[in-house]
Structure formats: structure tokens, C-alpha cells
Amino acid sequence: DIVLTQSPGTLSLSLGERASLSCRASQSVSSSYLAWYRQKPGQAPRLLIYGTSNRATGIADRISGSGSGTEFTLTISGLEPEDFAVYYCQQSKSSPYTFGQGTKLEIK
Amino acid sequence: QVQLHESGPGLVKPSETLSLTCTVSGGSVSSGDSYWSWVRQPPGKGLEWIGYTVYGGSDNYNPSFKSRVTISIDTSKNQFSLKLSSVTAADTAVYYCARSPTVLLRHFDYWGQGTVVTVSS
User: Most buried in the list A2, B4, B28, B74, measured by CB within 10 Å?
Assistant: First the structure.
């Protein structure tokens, strides 16, 4: 199985700051098959980024994804209240599809 | 706009079979392009993919569930379902159904709101 390790576990930032979330894979993942989700308490995950850098419908352009191989990054600029949540990366290069353990973005 | 909605018992006894249904609207489970998955999230933990089904194609399951899981499609009701046998307390979780748009785009673009299943006697 491909193991995805996200860091940091918790990120404390203030409104307006920039967040950088990391996702490291145990083996190379094609850029087509790396996605990011945001999950707020009591809600289902919401797709933010697919194919490493493609924003999903309705996602603001201050949210961006980058990376290749085994290192991927989600960047959120100008943090707004809605951004404070848990973020998961996910690979669909090979079965079983796997998720990272999550990064919690909290207000400082 | 595709919408998914899970339904089923919220309480299942140990050793019994968990059965959930996902009703799809705004899209068709028989399109043959989309893949229909189940994902679960134990209390306070992360996300775990259970498996997917695709109309006219092969199902694919997470080996972690070995032979306990079956996902199937009911085209007459535009639904797909999950059956997980021999459940234990470790199967207590929020269960989500989700869609992947195509075989080459295997992320999950639409999700149900989730349904809580507790395994307890």
C-alpha cells in the first residue's frame, strides 16, 4: 500500500497568513492521482484539488496545489475563517486508495 | 449537480452484516464512466477507502476488508449499496458514499453527508 504522511499534524496560523501543508508518499505517485480535501466538523470531506494542481469547481484561486513524485504541497494564501479545518491528501495511483492522516489547521 | 445520500440502520449487532444504501440523484449509476465508492471514518480518526463498483466493470475492494465486503449497483433505483459482514466494534464509523468521475480521474468529487453506524449489542 502507498502510505501518505502529512505534516505538520497541527498548524496554528492567524487570519490573512499563508498556510503550507505537506503530503509525502511512500512511493512515487503520478501527479494525476493526488488529491486534497477539506473537512469541517460534522461534515463530509470536500474536494479542493485533484491531479496535484487542478482546483475543483467553486474553489478559490488562493488555494493551490503543487508537487511531484513523492512530495506534494497544498498552499492556502490569505487565510479566511472557512479555511480552519482538517485537510487530507489522497492517492488513487494504486489500489487500495489511501488517505493521509490529516493536518488540522487551527486559528492562532 | 450530482447528489448522494446514504441510508441504513444506525445500529448493528456484533457478528451481523452492516447494510447501507447510497441513492444518487443528478447522475446515473449506470453511466459506466463513474466509479462509486464507500469511504469510512472511525470516531476521531482519518478516512479509509473501502472499495468501489462500476457499472459493467469490475469491483475493487480494499484488502483490509478481505472477503467481508460487497458493493453492488441497483440500476432500477439508481442506487449502490455496501454490505460488510461479521462486524465488530472496530467497524463503528461514519460511512460515506462518494463518486469518482472517470477511470482516469479517480479522486472523489461528490460525497454523501455520511451516516453513523454503531456496532454494539
Answer: B4
